[in-house]
Amino acid sequence: MPQFRIRQRAGPDDAAFIAAAFDSTLPHLASIGSGKQWGTELWSQKENFTKEVQAAIHQSEVNRTTGEGEYVRVLIAEVEGADLDGGSGSYREDETGEKLLMVGAAIIQKAFSPYLVSDPKCETIINEANARDDFIFLRALASDFRTGSFRRGAGAALVDEIKMHARLLGKKAVYVDCWAGNDGKLVAFYERQGFRVVAPFEIVQPDKPAWPGAFLRLDIAD
């Protein structure tokens, strides 16, 4: 398994990488029977998604460097010395000139997504968590399937980094939500990282099938 670096310092160029990483998941999801998770529209073509990622990167850097505003972190998983031999992927150079392949990204924050807040099945859990202010929320997580085997383990490495952030902040839990279809394959991934399902939920939109979801919690050990 590759050795990952997790970068906390995010910049404007990372928005294009994150969109490309999310785009890269769509063919994979279709191939394993999970195409209904995110559909077929490229994330990079969704104006709201691009704006939200750019805003998260901006706020991440404001909060990281000044402590001001809401807590947000954009985390990038990278691999040293990766050579794709003509494959596709996004590279950058660090301060020493080391070439790094970006293989995954996560966004964490201290607020739940609105669709969870409005779901009756999640309401009590969210109200209690907000009252205690003892959590962080994993808003987005993706690895870049363009990078082949170099991405394997990136999701788990990012979750480990998020656990560390929670401990440093004195939080007791990390929450996440995910698609629960296709026999819960994605739910099982999060369970392997230590999460447990605390509530099911659905996203209902006009003229579309209901989107089945799972709301999960990971307890942070002292």
UniProtKB/TrEMBL annotation:
Any one Gene Ontology molecular-function term assigned to this protein's record: acyltransferase activity, transferring groups other than amino-acyl groups
Transmembrane residue ranges: none
Domain N-acetyltransferase: 151-221
Protein name: N-acetyltransferase domain-containing protein
Organism for this UniProt entry: Uncinocarpus reesii (strain UAMH 1704)
